[in-house]
Amino acid sequence: MMSGVMGTNLAFSSPRMEVPPYRAPPIAAMRRYPLSFLILTTLGILTGLPGLAALAGFGAQWHPLLADTGTGIALVVSAIALIGSGLFPLVISRLMAQESAGKE
Length: 104
Prior knowledge:
single chain
């Protein structure tokens, strides 16, 4: 007869492993920089690179609008504004962290 078929016990048993429940870390501890800082700084860098290329004279190879130096200046100024806007939430979060550390 067949042993181990439904309704019969097998000769061996496997030990049960206790697995602790998963606890996700808090989101604030996972993220070192504010999301708005990361997004705005990335956009600023991506805007500044074609602006610097247009100012250096390489923009005409990519697009006719980038041949003008005024376009390069506008892109560089926009990049500086985006990076500056990204730094604002970073400074605020650092100040809040210092303030909360000082109270404890």
